[in-house]
Structure formats: structure tokens, C-alpha cells
Amino acid sequence: MYPVHFLATIDQPQYSMDLKVTKQKTTSTNKPIELVKTEQTEADVTAPEAEPQQTAEEILSESADLQEKIEQLGSQGVLKTIQSAEREQSLKPFQAELILMQKYLERSKRRMIILFEGRDASGKGGTIRRVARYMNEKHYRVVALGKPTESSRTQWFFQRYVEHFPRGGEVVLFDRSWYNRAMVEQVFGFCTPEEYKVFMKGVVGFEKDLVRQGTILVKLYFSVTKAEQKRRFERRKNDPLRQWKLSEVDLQAQERWDDFTNQKYEMLKRTHSNHAPWTVIRSNNKHEARLNALRTILNSVPYERENMGLDYVPDPEVVISGSREVEQMEAERIRRGKFTS
Asked: 135-185, pLDDT tens digit by residue?
């Protein structure tokens, strides 16, 4: 090994040093590699001054593309874009808490099922996307089952749903669930009266067993008004990016509004229980519905919260228990002679 010679001694420790290695050509005399220290003064290593921040006007004046985009959107379009971004930003602290909730489920090996139910265009899909956006994809799944096959029709009704149930440490979000039988199938005659009757008698016990065996079950019903549903359907018809959302069933939803309302009442009244309660979310305002759905989900899991500055209390104008919704519907029927919500 070559010997190392220091050719300078540093008497002022406040100075920084660079080591410069000079390798000399090897000869028969085996000259050593010399490490040369060079001193730098504080002036030599002063950080460059930060560039002054540009104002919005300066940024705008330098960006022709941005100016063109603003002109295309108009003032109302720009305002709408900014407000949308602010709403999405306000969800992020709660989405961060969902990640902590997931970690708790992973450590404890708890299972979690979240049901998203409600009328067509009530905001289920958009809420599901906000819930899952930043979650660890290895530990959650979104399940949206299609029309049952002839083979599955011969099986136990719950079997095709049980096949997608979570393992320990996993969350499964059902975009519509076994409650299709209580709503869509019953309204459109996709099941027999006997099949409906058997389901309504058995579902409460089925869910009780799930909860008793350690599964966290959250049942969310998104409630939208008839006028708002119509507005959203019209938007889907006229927007090529949303037209795929419309189905034959959707097109009949307005005509069958009262039928769906009656089935909603029966479902909430007969399947709301202490071990598996319904939470109704008023979803005319999509952002408020999403925000309060996040709060409801977080409150259902006993994980250790990190951000104690957040307001975890659901808005009572948006979130209501299934039993309270039934009471309000019954009062409405007495006043007006029929259900209207």
C-alpha cells in the first residue's frame, strides 16, 4: 500500500477542504500518491442568491400558451378549474389518513368491506375513486360485478360476492353489492318475489356473521334528488366522455323513481341493524358527499390518527343514519301522501 503524506496542516477548522488526488506514473522507485489539501474561504462557498419569485402577472406575460388557454376557458372556466383543484386539495389530508388506516388493517390483519349503494348517478363511482386514489393498491380492491351468469344463478345468492371478500389486512370496496337484489332486481323484475323475500330475511343474519367474525362492514347509501339525477343524466347524454355511463336501466330510472323510492324505504327499514347500520349520504353536492364519506370510513376503524387538526365529524346536513332517514321518509309520506325523496 502506498504511504500517504499530508502536505499541509489546517490551523483554521472553520475553513472547508477539498482533497485532490494526483496519481503519478508508477516507476521503479514507487513514488507515493500525494493528497493535496486546498483551502477555501467562506466567500468561495457562499450559496448563490435565490432568484426572486415571479408574480402571477409576470408568469402570465411570459407564457403565451397559458394566455391562450385562459382565453379559451374564459373567466368562469378558470374560476371553475381553480375551485375544482381546491376541492381536490381539501380531500388530501383525509386521503393521507386512509393510508394510515390501511396500515392499521395490515398490522392487525383485520378485514374491511365498504358497500357503495344508491341510485344511478348518485356519485358512488366518483367517491370510490377518491377513497382509493392514494391507497396501497396491494391491499385494496374495487369490485363491480356485472349481470350474474346462468351458472351463478344456480348457486347460493351470496356466493359470487363472498368469492371477492377481503383477506386479512385488505379493504374491498363494492360498487353496488348484494343489495342489488333489494333495489334494481326487485324494481325491474330481475328476481322472483320469492327470491326477494328470501334475501330480505337472510341478509341481516349474513351480515351479523361477517361482523361477529371480525370484518369491519361499512354500508353507504348515496341519496340524490330526482332533479339532480336528471341533470346528471343530461350531462352524460351530451358528453362523449360520459356517454358510456348510460345504460338502459339508467334511462328508465327517472320513470321508475317512485318504485326505487319505495324499495329504498323497505331496504333501509328492514336491513339497518346495530351490527351493520346504514349511513345515508346526501350527494347532490359531490364534493361534500366525498368529504363526508371519507370521514365516515375513517371513523369506522380504530386506527391511531396522525392529523389531529382535521375535523373528523361528519356534517349532519350531509350524513344521516339509516334509521333517521326512515323516520324522515315516514314523516314525508304522512305530510304529502307518498315518498318523494
From this structure: 999 999 999 999 999 999 999 999 999 999 999 999 999 999 999 999 999
Helix (H) or strand (E) holding 123: none
The parts of the chain modelled with pLDDT lower than 50 are 1-29, 31, 33, 35-38, 42-43, 45, 47
pLDDT of residue 6: 40
Q: Which three cell numbers stand for residue 27?
A: 516507476
CATH number of 83-336: 3.40.50.300
Grid cell 477548522 in the structure block, residue: 13
State the CB neighbour count (10 A cutoff) for residue 312. 14
C-alpha span between 277 and 217 (Å, rounded): 9
What DSSP element (H or E) covers 325?
helix 322-336
The reported pLDDT for the residue numbered 116 is 98
- Distance of alpha carbon 295 from alpha carbon 55, whole angstroms: 37
Angstrom distances, CA of residue 146 to CA of 55, 143, 149, 160, 320: 52, 10, 9, 11, 29
Instruction: For residue 96, give the nearest of 319, 309, 317 by alpha carbon.
Output: 309
Q: Quote the pLDDT of residue 57.
A: 64
- The Cα 291–Cα 294 span in angstroms is 5
What pLDDT shows up at residue 68? 72
Cell of 333: 309520506
Domain boundaries, the chain: 83-336
- Mean pLDDT (the chain) is 86
Kindly provide the b/e burial profile for residues 224-234, where b requires at least 16 CB atoms within 10 angstroms of the residue's own CB: bebebbeebbe
Residue owning grid cell 344511478: 120
The answer to whether 114 touches 105, Cβ cutoff 8 Å, is: no
pTM above 0.85, yes or no: no
Q: Using the structure block, give the residue that is written with the C-alpha cell 388530501.
A: 92
Which strand ranges, in their side-by-side order, compose the sheet holding 171-175?
140-143, 171-175, 111-118, 215-223, 278-282, 319-321
